[in-house]
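Worked example 2:
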Amino acid sequence: MQTINVNLLEKILYHVEKPGRYVGGEHNQILKDWDSIRTHVCLVFPDIYDIGQPNLGLAILYDILNQQPDILAERAFAPWHDLEAQLRQNEIPIFSLESKHPIAQFDVIGFSLPYESLYTNALNVLDLAGIPLLSTERSAEHPLIIAGGQACYNPEPMADFIDAFVIGEGEEVILEVVRATEQLKQAGADRIALLQGLSRIPGVYVPSLYSVSYAQNGTISAFLPLESSVPAFVTKRIVAKLPPHPTRLIVPNIETVHDRLSIEIMRGCTRGCRFCHAGIVNRPVRERPVSEILQIIEDGLAATGYEEIGLLSLSSSDHTQILQLTKSVYEKFQNRKVFVSLPSLRIASFSVELMDELRDLRPGGGFTLAPEAASPRMQAIINKPLDNAIFEETVRTVFEHGWLSLKLYYMIGLPGETMEDVQAILDAGKRVLAIGRQIRGNRVRVHLSVGNFIPKPHTPFQWYPLNTTDELQAKLDLLKTGVHRTGLKLSYNIPGTTLLEAWLSRGDRRLGQVILRAWQLGAKFDAWGENDNLPFWHQAFSEIGLDPDFYAYRERALDEILPWDHIHTGVTKAFLRRDLEWSKLGKTRKDCREQCYACGILDSFGADRPISPLVYWGCP
């Protein structure tokens, strides 16, 4: 096996904007001897190094695989336009950072797909590697192409390109996939036999082993496995207890989007927000104990030299020992000039004590709250009730305790939303700014960050249509006009980007043809606002003969077979339907820690996976 020409690589890196993205050699990277290792895995994050390298999921899998003495795991990222041009011009295949081997020489290529706008980048990486894009065109000589991540809970749009999807949490199943691949290849299995063998691993979905048929109206009429040994439904993998956290994280060569020691303190959520895809697919809740988190911080700081710690989860302030944790972190690390951030906080979780601890851990930083909706009616619809008096008292306390900057997250385009509900967002922002200036003067800054709602798979809102771009634009125009000369800052998502995400997250297997054609026309880095790729997508839909409105603006029937119905998150479809009806009635649910609503998640474990109340908070 040959590495790429390093001398030629050095020459072409003079012509790119940030060569540090491609050289490897970072502190804590793991470089094993290629020839002495039996199995080679390349972990690919199909976005630029600056965004992909800080991804904690990538770091966890890198650590787990490289702990095995007979497995080598290396990394690759999507090259920016400048390096891609050089690679194509000089006929250099895309390569791994550690050993500079072409990624086509690896046994397994694992794509991380946390969001749908990476799909065309994944195709571009395969093309740069010289690997056929279509799974059906690959032979036993090609690497096994697998994918995992939050976007894979609806794998169908990428079914033509990925050999096998890992559904759910990857810490255990990644080794099972790699070991099964080793054993089947050693036994002389051809590619079909390899895929059949992988399909027998719980949580692994092999799309080529299923057939899809469609009714005249375009909806799915049947989704069936081709063989009796292939499961009709694939249930996500769940780790019973959060595994040991990596501490020797790779320290990047260049500035990245998150230059910090990231630590997952909790996984899952018990709040039940009806719009939230992550809140459903990451159930149940599991927490790390404070003592374990403190040791991870200690070891991680020693191994990396970072000066900032990110305590991560869907809602960090919902950790049952969050106050003890923040106090312990402050007491143990206050003399090291280490900053601590909790990126996701809930108003209902706050106390004055927690605010003071956060201020001490991150002096001079801003504070973030996520009301999501501003009117009581909308708050009930999305199951995120918030007493305005409590909200304003929380805001008042934030400013009274020394904070000068406050960011508020809201959504527009939610089911049943009116322009009055959008106006309520503006009114709330103005009230917050007035409270802040009354307490702290004109130095106060209030930032409204507004996202566009997308009815995501596996949520109670999955049957709803997306707001049209005109509807979203009208709501944004109201907000933009309303913040003019108020002192409020407003940031928002472009409706066209929202439309693309809706197509890709809600699409069926036929969308693979559209993705391929859009990439051929020039679509890539679709998440980047500076790339106006939407015309490529509209042209692709037109050429393939699919109606894009079918995937975005159509309300789906409750008895319809949805493209992702064969993927089971552990939460039943009956529960989602029931929660949808409650939403229409404005009926809210309590936190799952207070009352169990039998969503089905505990049934996903089976009798051989015992449930401990010390691990699963809020579940009986």
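Confidence is low (pLDDT under 50) at residues 607-618. The CA atoms of residues 567 and 577 lie 16 Å apart.
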